Amino acid sequence: MTFDRDANDSVTIVIPTLNEREAIGLVIDEFRSLGYRNIIVVDGGSTDGTVEIAKSKGVRVLQQEGKGKAAAIATAIRHVETPYILVVDGDYTYPARFLRDMLRAMEREQCDEVIGARLYGEGHTPVFRFGNYVLTKLFNFLFGTRLRDVLSGMYLVRVDAIKDMLFEMKGFSVESEIAAHIASMGGRICEVPIEYRRRLGRKKLGVRHGFRIALDMIRLAYRYNPVVIVFIPSAILLLLGIGILSYVAYHYIVYGVKHYVKALIGLIVLTLGGVGVFVSLLSVYLKRMEIRMYRRIRSLEKRLESREQG
Ligand SMILES: Nc1nc2c(ncn2[C@@H]2O[C@H](COP(=O)(O)OP(=O)(O)OP(=O)(O)O)[C@@H](O)[C@H]2O)c(=O)[nH]1
Ligand SMILES: [Mg+2]
Fold it and tell me: What residues line ligand 1, using a CB cutoff of 6 Å?
C-alpha cells in the first residue's frame, strides 16, 4: 500500500473516549496501519483502562477540561497543529479507510468540513436511524443546508474554520454546533458516504439525548441564523393581522357594523408582524454582507499566506 505522506500528516485524528476499552486499541491500530501519525485521544475520565491502552499504543492522551464530548473536542483543538482535524468516535464504528476519500474531497471541493455520512453498514438501530433522519431534516430546515447525516461521529474540519467557535453547546450537540458555525459563515460542508459498523462496547447516547440535540439545534438557530426564528412568528402575526382587518372591513362594508376594538387589535397585530418581517429581511441582508466580507477576508488571508510562503 502506498501512503500519501503529505496528506496524512496534514490531519490530526482526535478520538474522544469514555470507557471504550474494547474498541480504542483497534481504532488506533486501524488509523496507524493506514499511515496516519498524529493521533490524540481525549479522555473524559474513563475508569475501565481505556487511557492505559491508549498510552501503551504510544499516542498522545489528554484529559479533557470540563464535561461531555463537546468539552473533549474543545480541549483537543487547542493542541492541534495541523490544518485539518478529524474527529472520530472511539467505538470502532467508523472505518478509517474513508478518511482518505474525505481528505480528497476536502482539497478537491474546497470544503470547510467533510462529514462521513453513514449511508450503509450495520451500525444503525431503527430508532437511531429514524432519530438521525429527523434531526438532520430539522438542521437542514433551520440552516438552509442539504445534509444527509449532520450527527455523524466522523468528520473532517479545517481548523481555521472553527478557530473562533465558542463551544456553547454541551455533549452530543457539538456536531450540530460545528456545522451551524460553518454553514452560517457561508462555509462549505461536504459529505462523503461511509460505512457504519456495529459498535463495540456500550452506547452512551440515549433517546433523551435526541430531544436535547433538537432543542440545542433551535438554540443554535437562534444564535447563528435568527432569521428563521423571527420570521416564522412574524409572518404568522402579519397574516393574522390581515385576517382580522379583512373581517372588520367586510363587516363594515356589507353590514355597516363598526368593530373598533377588533380593528385596533388587528392593527396592532399587523404592525407587530410587519415590523418582524421587515427586521428578518434586514437581517438576511446583514448576514449576506457578513458572509461576503468573511469570504473576502479569507481570500485575502490565503493570498497573504501564499506570498509569505513563496
Ligand atoms: N472524552 C469524552 N468522550 C466521550 C464522552 N461521552 C462520550 N464520549 C465518546 O464519544 C464517542 C461517541 O459516543 P458514543 O457512545 O459512541 O455515541 P453513540 O451512542 O455510539 O452514538 P452515535 O455514535 O451518534 O451513534 C465515543 O467514542 C465515546 O466514548 C465524554 O464525556 N468525554
Ligand atoms: Mg458511536
Answer: 16-18, 20, 42-44, 64, 67-69, 72, 89-91, 128, 151, 153, 199, 203-205
- Which atom of ligand 1 approaches the CA of 128 most closely? 25
Alpha carbon distance 37, 18 (integer Å): 22
Question: Which residues are paired to 195 by β-bridges?
Answer: 120
CA 187 to the chain's CA centroid: 12
The model's pTM is 0.85
For 284, residues 6+ apart whose C-beta sits below 8 A from its C-beta are: 227
The C-alpha atoms of residue 106 and residue 82 are separated, in whole angstroms, by 14
Give the C-alpha separation, 69 to 155, whole Å: 14
Q: Whose CA is nearest to atom 28 of ligand 1?
A: 17
Residue of the CA atom closest to atom 13 of ligand 1:
204
Name the closest ligand to CA 124: 1
- Is 134 in contact with 140 (CB distance < 8 Å)? no
Q: Are 33 and 95 in contact (CB under 8 A)?
A: no
Is 2 a residue whose pLDDT tops 80?
no
pLDDT in tens, 237-257: 999 999 999 999 999 999 999
Higher pLDDT, 135 or 141: 135
Residue 106 CA to residue 11 CA, distance in Å, equals 11
Question: Please, what is the average pLDDT of the chain?
Answer: 93
Q: Is residue 1 over pLDDT 50? A: no
